[in-house]
Amino acid sequence: xxxxxxxxxxxxxxxxxxxxxxxxxxxxxxxxxxxxxxxxxxxxxxxxxxxxxxxxxxxxxxxxxxxxxxxxxxxxxxxxxxxxxxxxxxxxxxxxxxxxxxxxxxxxxxxxxxxxxxxxxxxxxxxxxxxxxxxxxxxxxxxxxxxxxxxxxxxxxxxxxxxxxxxxxxxxxxxxxxxxxxxxxxxxxxxxxxxxxxxxxxxxxxxxxxxxxxxxxxxxxxxxxxxxxxxxxxxxxxxxxxxxx
Length: 245
What we know:
2 domains; 3-stranded antiparallel sheet
């Protein structure tokens, strides 16, 4: 079994963590002891009150409060589930929780939950989301903008050799001849801005990740992938509107 104080030796460090981070520590402790004293279920009241916990004796009240918050978070996420018809607040560790083998697994889960799969364009959800789940954030961004490039090429019926900035400029051109994805209902300035939007986004995000490793934090990756998803929805909206095959 792994004591909480073994996972985070200093009480002040534990208390400085966000509730989700404390939850990861608590879950690793509970999973490690499931085949021991917690076999068959964990009693909420017994866990916190009897026998007294001795992880951090001089700050036990504060630690218990932090762990209670973490316990509530684990419940809300479906990691701890109340046992039906058991008094005293009995809980069991869910199947989802048991798939967590380390704190790193828990961090990866938390990162994955930042990207709402149900709100993504179907192409992003199917082809990009798996890379994000694996923590391959630069790869996920690269794949997302590759989908944007492929969608623009297909919607505009461009040849395979048409790529990158040249492709985006041709697809959304508003002069001297309108590109296949140029929206004639927009003012000329907005038509040009739409082309700049696609070309600029492709140049910044697709090109950088295709030529080098770009260190990316999960939250930043979420924002960029959601942006790519929005670009794909714009293409979907323009394609049937103007009858592009």
